[in-house]
Amino acid sequence: MDAETDALAWAKLLRRAYHLSIQEGSRPASILRPVIVDSWARCSAAGVDHAGTASVVLGPEEARRRFAAHALAPLLPVVETLLVSVAQHARQVAVLADRDGMVLWTGGRPDAVAGARRSRFLPGALWSEQGAGTNALGTSLVLDHPVQVFSAEHFKESMHGLSGAAAPVHDPATGAILGVVGLTGPLRAAHPHGYSVVLAAVQILETQLAHHVAQRDERLKVQYLQRVLGGCSTSSAVVNREGRVLLSRPQGWLGNQLDVRDGVPVSPPAGALRLEPLPHGEGHIVFRARGADTGLPVLRLEALGRERARVRVGDVELELSRRHSEVLAVLALHRDGLTHAELGEAVYGTATKGVTVRAEICRLRKALGPVLTASPYRLVADLRADFLEVERLLSRGCASAALAAYPGELLPGSHAPGLLPTRQRLAAAIEAAGSQPLTSALSRAFAGS
Predict the structure, then answer these.
(1) Other CB atoms closer than 10 Å to residue 34's CB: what's the count?
(2) Is 162 helix (H, G, I), strand (E, B) or coil?
(3) Which domain holds residue 237?
(4) Tens digits of per-residue pLDDT, 411-425?
(5) Are 7 and 188 a contacting pair, CB within 8 Å?
(6) Same domain, yes or no, for 129 and 16?
(7) In 3-state terms, what secondary structure has residue 355?
(8) Percentages helix, strand, coil for the chain, rounded to the nearest 5?
């Protein structure tokens, strides 16, 4: 319905179409929108009664508790600012419901809120499609899309005096539906701008949620760094409640994403990880359990004191070409992966073509198999590289062990720009370790590298 349409005349036409289709079983009239016809079909198939009203399944106190625990509760002031003033002016009611269609909060002029309660549009009422038939809240949740429902487009006759617009709100971290917000009121108060207002409100709410998630993730990083810098020799990472790996040490050992259930990581298998929950259920610090099998293939890389690296994956052992040695060593230093442009710059310098990198990667993948993936180029393996082990020993102040594990420079004949800083840093640290005990400053430098 647009601003030029006579609301009462249009409602009369819709009631006639509703009577023919729902009560007489005739073919849906052409004036009915497909989104409404499809919703009516779903309601009929689910056995929804077109008589009666929505069901109230929660009492006021229980509804308040459910709302207080909901992810959108902290954003209620934003909802009130965006929607309540519009609702008061338009004689409508602002509403927020969860992803099940359970109304958790309503706001607006007291007389409008009281009138909505008589239609069972109140906290604790179930306005899903199966609970209340075709309506803006429930149908938008089914479609995961904004919806406006006017008068006799509602499946239940008791709602034919209403008009509503609603849109789902999504979790910015996962894309999952958190709930739905909308405006509902008498059909005489219906206006197409209500639909636009709801859309704008949802965009602002999702922006606010994204900001909150970013703040939370930065807070988790700080908590993780405070924890591991206090002394931690095993592989570790910080994972948010959606399973995203925010930081890891060594970089990339856990990949970028874990499967989670109720905010708790469930992959790799629980026996491979030790979990330390962070406050308020926001995430976990994850440690590799001692002696645990990560489920990833072991890739052993020897590149110290060698012109050509030796690599072993499972039962396959190879001596790589010089270029492949550089590619693998660079990727070992960048566990989160590199684009073909980044890898090309690290191996060849700035003047290189993407096709050259892709050709080298293609040949290397034939030799190593699925441990080398693309988009980005990354090693998906339990990586055990001799130069990374020497760095780890140096970072822990184990000078004697580091000296014993260091047969020579990292690929000494290589001119790959991406390897020079690590080669020089290791050589300088080993030289210092051979002449005197490592200083705490040197240890800290390696711990943060």
Answers:
(1) 8
(2) strand
(3) 232-288
(4) 999 999 999 999 999
(5) yes
(6) yes
(7) helix
(8) 45, 20, 35
